[in-house]
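Translate structure to sequence.
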């Protein structure tokens, strides 16, 4: 049995990173002891409740020198001490990393594994130009709706897809979510929703739930149930007829996994190309996309289309299932990690 620490900081506390950490932890706890170390309290929104998983929250700090996922984190010494006192064998990083911490852990014979979705093109190129990949024992990049070029040494895995489950919903419910609400673009998303809700309610009698994220306070929209967050996102997705969301990597693939026709509104991210992901999502027939700068009536029109055109709705569900079924289970990230951790 090995001791494994997931280090996740600078993620904004998004629900997507919660999904990643929870999924990997659940697949490792039968054979290993797992620690999840973060500057956000991911345990609140995680369904993982197991004594062999230890959640530790570290201070939230402004990070500097963010380039290609590399950051300088002032509490790295605390991470190093924590890993040393608990005899951690493997450290797995989620997108962001402090190179000094990685190198110090390596000196202590700790194996370092980097896991990320594809970074925005320039940041992906910079990651390898600066040879950040060389400081890790292994680099794992999840596949996406679009792709970048990577050196042969990089391990590619399937997208983070939950067990496929096609859910039929005859309700007139709409779910609005901006993930964890940890990024500035979520403020713009929520403002768009304030304009969208009265517009869609003028033409359709729908029930709307909004998951605002823990970092967006005191938002109220008439006749909308507003939740800060949830540890059971799948239930809200399944109950909804239509989901409107930012185009984060993990949320997008969770929607595909649930065969849920949705509309993606990409948020602005320095290192995550949500715009391109949203465009490819619509191009592949998995749902629709609307740019934040486009007219709100386009969003209303696409929503009404999904609510009323059952033939198109079923075709989108079939496209999601086709996309999901192309991937072989042995290339899932949890199986790749099992082969690297002893």
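Result:
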């Amino acid at each position: 049995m090995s001791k494994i620490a997931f280090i996740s900081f600078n993620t904004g506390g998004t629900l997507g990173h919660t999904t990643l950490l929870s999924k990997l932890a659940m697949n490792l706890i039968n054979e290993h002891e797992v620690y999840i170390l973060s500057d956000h309290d991911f345990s609140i929104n995680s369904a993982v409740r197991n004594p062999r998983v230890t959640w530790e929250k570290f201070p939230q700090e402004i990070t500097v020198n963010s380039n290609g996922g590399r950051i300088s984190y002032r509490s790295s010494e605390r991470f190093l001490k924590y890993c040393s006192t608990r005899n951690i064998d493997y450290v797995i990083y989620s997108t962001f990393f402090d190179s000094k911490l990685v190198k110090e852990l390596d000196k202590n014979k700790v194996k370092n594994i980097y896991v990320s979705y594809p970074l925005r093109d320039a940041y992906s190129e910079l990651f390898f130009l600066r040879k950040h990949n060389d400081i890790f024992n292994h680099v794992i990049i999840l596949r996406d709706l679009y792709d970048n070029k990577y050196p042969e040494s990089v391990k590619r895995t399937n997208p983070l897809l939950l067990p496929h489950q096609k859910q039929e919903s005859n309700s007139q419910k709409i779910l609005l979510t901006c993930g964890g609400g940890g990024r500035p673009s979520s403020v713009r998303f929520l403002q768009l929703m304030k304009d969208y809700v009265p517009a869609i309610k003028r033409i359709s009698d729908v029930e709307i739930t909004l998951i605002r994220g823990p970092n967006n306070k005191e938002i109220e929209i008439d006749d909308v149930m507003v939740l800060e967050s949830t540890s059971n996102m799948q239930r809200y997705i399944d109950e909804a007829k239509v989901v409107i969301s930012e185009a984060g990597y993990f949320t997008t693939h969770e929607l595909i996994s649930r065969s849920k026709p949705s509309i993606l509104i990409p948020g602005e991210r320095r290192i995550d190309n949500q715009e391109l992901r949203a465009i490819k999502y619509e191009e592949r027939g998995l749902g629709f996309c609307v740019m934040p700068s486009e007219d709100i009536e386009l969003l209303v029109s696409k929503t009404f289309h999904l609510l009323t055109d059952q033939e198109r709705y079923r075709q989108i569900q079939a496209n999601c299932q086709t996309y999901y079924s192309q991937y072989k289970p042995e290339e899932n990230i949890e199986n790749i990690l099992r082969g690297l951790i002893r």
